[in-house]
Amino acid sequence: MQDTAGSSPTTGWDRRRERVSRAIERVALELFAKSSPEEVTIEQIAAAAGISNRTFFRYFASRDDILAALPTRSLARVSEIVRARPEAETVIEAFAAAGQDPDQSDDDRELVLLWGLVVHRSPDAAARALGHSTVGMAEVFQVLVAERLSIDATSTRAGALGAAIAGVVSYTCHQWVISGGRIPLGTMLAEAFDSLNDLRTTAPRG
Questions:
Q1: Residue range 131-175, pLDDT digits in tens
Q2: Looking at residue 202, what DSSP letter applies?
């Protein structure tokens, strides 16, 4: 089993570590959703996961690390998919395709919805966690846009487009969480990106 092209083979230990890490993450998010991240202790997370506090710290440095784990993985996956899309596709088409990730499992989708519920109920805690991480959706998208358009990543054009795409993704994910995930997130993202074409529509004169 390989991770991505050019990476080293995934070992049994790597797979076990990922499995345990996801189990801790899910248990913690379930606890966060019931109360709030600030009210849940490391001891409670470890007990619910059936591990020791020491084992917890082998996988996560803090509760904030748990909240930042999923968006960090998601951004890495989106980057991988966008970079692999055909050059003939537009930027919007490439990002819309990333939202339709065929490799996402039902467990992954459930975890995304659970994470979204926590963020919806405790936005300050989520903002703090992401602020302390290396995650920066607009910045990541800015680089991806620049690569696809072969423009300077520090340009206003790349920055504005990266911020616009990040805004669409943030808004759509929020709406998806509010709806309880009834409509596939990929479908909602595709519709949201398609709506950007309206920016070129001239308003009717009355």
A1: 655 558 899 999 999 999 999 999 999 999 999 999 999 899 888
A2: P
Contact at 8 Å (CB) between 138 and 166?
yes
Percent of the chain topping pLDDT 90:
51
Please tell me the total count of domains within the chain. Answer: 1
DSSP single-letter state for residue 196: G
DSSP secondary structure code for residue 9 in this structure? B
Token code pair at residue 136:
């920066």
Instruction: Give me the chain's average pLDDT, please.
Output: 87
Best CA proximity match to 26, nearest among 85, 89, 111, 87: 111
Q: Cβ-count burial of 82 within 10 angstroms (0-12 exposed, 13-18 middle, 19+ buried)?
A: buried
- The CATH number of the domain holding residue 139 is 1.10.357.10
